[in-house]
Request: fold
Amino acid sequence: MSPSFRSLRDFLEVTDAVADPPPSSGDFEKEVEASSGKEVETADYLIDLQQKEERTTPIDGQLSETLEKESDEASEKSSDFSAFQEFKSAWNSLPSADKDGVSECFKEASSGSLATDKVKSIHNGLVSLESREGENPNITIEKCQGSVGKGESYKSQEENESTEKTEKLKKMVRVQSYEKIADNASVAHISLKSYASVGTSFENFELNGIYSAIKSNNTENTAMMEEAWETLQKSYVYYKGRPVGTLAAMDPTAEALNYNQVFVRDFVPSGLACLMRPANAGGDPEIVKNFLLKTLHLQGWEKRIDNFTLGEGVMPASFKVLYDSHRQKETLVADFGGSAIGRVAPVDSGFWWIILLRSYTKCTHDYTLSEMPEVQRGMKLILNLCLSDGFDTFPTLLCADGCSMIDRRMGIYGYPIEIQALFYFALRCSRQMLKPERDGKELIERIDKRITALTYHIRNYYWLDFTQLNNIYRYKTEEYSHTAVNKFNVIPESIPDWVFEFMPLRGGYLIGNVSPARMDFRWFLVGNCIAILSSLVTPAQETAIMDLIEERWEDLIGEMPLKIVYPALEGHDWRTVTGFDPKNTRWSYHNGGTWPACIKTGRPQIAKRAIELMEQRLSKDGWPEYYDGKAGRYVGKQARKYQTWSISGYLVAKLMIENPANLLIISLEEDKRISKSKLTRSISF
Ligand code: GLC
Reply:
């Protein structure tokens, strides 16, 4: 047995799961043995695993060819993945002078030199620009030559190589068209031009913003970045010598509770930071791969709370590595909600796992991981939990309170937007990675149907803007039959007073929850951000959400970005909805507290402004978990210091501003099949 085989086997615990609690029959190692029934076949399988492990990255042409055949999203996958990969590595290997040159190119593209190019997608400040060969390549190349021309005075071989790289990069510059916005606008029968945020200046605004953001952020706050990287590295958790995740927080002054564990949701920004960091600067995709494999292994455990066994696909909320001094072995302890305060089940964990798997694949081009049979199986188990038939009349997922990032009672039970947006995001990601073999094809069909239904439901029934609010305000009630306008029988008197004041003329958002006779009008940050990242909302809705943030900056951002929920529950509402929760008093923690966050804004100047606010305090205050107060001015009463996702969230925000191509590691384009249908109805588009 070769050493690498041994270490891989040890790491995956393929045959020896003694250290862990007894795995369930779903455990993939066991399944491997059961399916073969013979040791020799197991060994073959292990060798196969080893070979897969040893396959180089990027993958070979044959494998990529197979992949392309296997999915009807092949074109999206190959062009998207490889163009991005090329773009990223070309960008990373450029000296900063040349980066400036390319940035100039972007600037010129935005200022009209490339006016003949249609801008195809507003995928928010995405800087995947490419001169369209055959359409107007000359314009781009010539224009760019001017700005990179400075390089001509340098004659060294290195410089020549970098000029070549720049040229390659420029060729990849693609000015995408805004035709999708136009589609939506025409669907809504509204002229875009009258709205500043979607108006004619939009292209210049976007690209110039990105350009200056790229330039100015190259030199800023290096010390804070270094501190953040160092602290992130200190939070690494090792298992059998390999990093498998990051601690939630490392506050020496507070009781650890479960903050000394690796939380699945908390690891996502850490993982993204490690993926986005250029390899030559310490980028570390390995920790992400290890994390994905380790949590997959935990999924295979039998999960029991009291006498009740949880679904096979449930992923843990968190896990930790313990050293068993008796057996002189490291063991893993996972929490599926059974130990969590309030016994809350992490509905979001499985979705985040799928989303991170797709980010890993997209960034590294290493398809071997997502193609492993046990990884495919893990994905299917998660999806089966959500796609099984039941009594539902809605395509949304019914959830208990505390099932996501807001893991305490906060009145989010029902159909919370955060889970619905993550559900959609995970469906779209799985759609790219699932292989249509065996039962895969049928599952893919179910996914497609659910994506369509979910998109329709969310875009229509969760969307609130001035016009829609006015419609609801005038709703008739007690309508029967399919012709009802007020489908959920929402009583207009249930609309809270604050929302009439809060709603600007320009802008809109997805409300917190929709169910029979109940609309939770509160603003929830994570749900809206995930809806933007995953393109669950239309480009026009995306723009409107950003408008809302601009219009209501004081309320939603204040002195520290961003407010997790708006407004806070107070008085009687706080007592009845949170159950007198002392940790969730008004404007604190999950109840209107402010969390250092990173979002795909599509308006770099907003992102910059938000990051600047963070930079003024975050490091000085010891990277707290959250801030309190209406303006987010005070370090949270019970906030942990050195909270890892505050650190990695900051790093991800900086990495995306520095190199906007990084956005593609996490974001999704609009689903082309869905963008054609009529889904919006607001005048704010
Ligand atoms: C808090 C947060 C939760 C997070 C955990 C670890 O419980 O509400 O979202 O995962 O801390 O940081």
